[in-house]
Amino acid sequence: MLPFNKPYFVGTETRYIEDAVRSGKISGDGTYTRRCEAWFEQHLGSARALLTTSCTDALELAALLLDIQPGDEVLLPSFTFSSTANAFVLRGAKLVFVDCGPTSPALDTAALAALVTPRTRAIVPVHYAGTACDMATVLGVAGQHKLAVVEDAAQAISSSYQGRPLGTLGALGAFSFHETKNVTAGGEGGLLAINDPELVRRAEILREKGTNRAAFFRGEVDKYSWVDVGSSFLPADINAAFLWAQLEALDFIQAQRCAIWQRYHEGLQPLAALGVELPTVPAYATNNGHLYYLVCRSLAERTALITHLRAQGIAAIFHYQPLHRSPYYASRHDGRPLPRADRYADCLVRLPLYVELDEAEQQRITREVLAFYQQ
Ligand SMILES: Cc1ncc(COP(=O)(O)O)c(C=O)c1O
């Protein structure tokens, strides 16, 4: 079976992990953690980049940092992963789901302004497939109503909006280094990019169990104490060592993934004429080769396509179930229909995409998708 995803190992990961182990400092904030964070601060231009144990944790840290309170409202897409929502639900926030856009699974930014109320505190755009949302509108609505913007950039490493790296346009940006993402920190990992300098000091404290340990290690205070709420968001240095190996190979990884994405896009163009939706990359956005999807014309068609590919030994899979219809939140949703989120949940299918997918294998996948539609 050709898998849907296969994590890529650069080859230097175990050497760097061994190096971290031999250094005798394997908890958080070791040499590799600092190296990775410095890399992100340089490449993103953020005031601070903090490694976390996952993107889920980075989002939870963001919600804590923004002091989201019970009853605050947060605007976010319904077509996303539970973590985008959980971070705010854990603080007692009310979720106000936004539908997908007319031509892509990205947030329908035209709907945002009408959903703002006096209780709205934040907008959380998700850069689905690593392709930027319409951030001018997001930032415009947020600026007008003094709302915080937390970018869920889980899938968006190395991608940009009008030349600005994703994850750096809002006050905060959360990235994932789970094994399904373009680079991984050894299976699980994340990062919070802190773009508002005023949030940096408190972010370091919340991430370190509410203590001012970071300031203590910098020699800024003579003892460290419990000074705020917090949790344990800091990953072990061996995860950072793994991630460092991947970051060193990022150009190669990105080139491979984007080449695969492009070949799918060219090979599957005939489907567009049949009414099958293929991904679009707006002029303001870039493509980071994170995932390639098709949007079938119906749920029945998608089920048949997935079954056909599986019979040919190809694992293709659907994506999120819409959160406004989830068992956990459906009864709390305000009842607005979100038909585009429903459609993407029912009809979107993702094709295998990983660095080691060779051209012959990929051609076979493309051939089988086209053969399904020729039947
Ligand atoms: C949009 C989005 N946000 C957050 C997450 C959570 O990432 P992690 O697994 O690193 O916690 C995911 C996971 O795939 C995701 O797709």
Automatic annotation (TrEMBL):
The modification N6-(pyridoxal phosphate)lysine is found at K181. GO terms for molecular function: dTDP-4-amino-4,6-dideoxygalactose transaminase activity; pyridoxal phosphate binding. One of its GO terms (biological process) is polysaccharide biosynthetic process. SUPFAM superfamilies: PLP-dependent transferases (SSF53383). It comes from the Bacteria. The active site is at K181 (proton acceptor). The keyword Protein transport does not apply. InterPro entries: DegT/StrS_aminotransferase, PyrdxlP-dep_Trfase, PyrdxlP-dep_Trfase_major, PyrdxlP-dep_Trfase_small, WecE-like. Coiled coil: none annotated. Keywords: Pyridoxal phosphate. The keyword NAD does not apply. Transmembrane segments: none annotated. Signal peptide: none annotated. Belongs to the DegT/DnrJ/EryC1 family. This is dTDP-4-amino-4,6-dideoxygalactose transaminase.
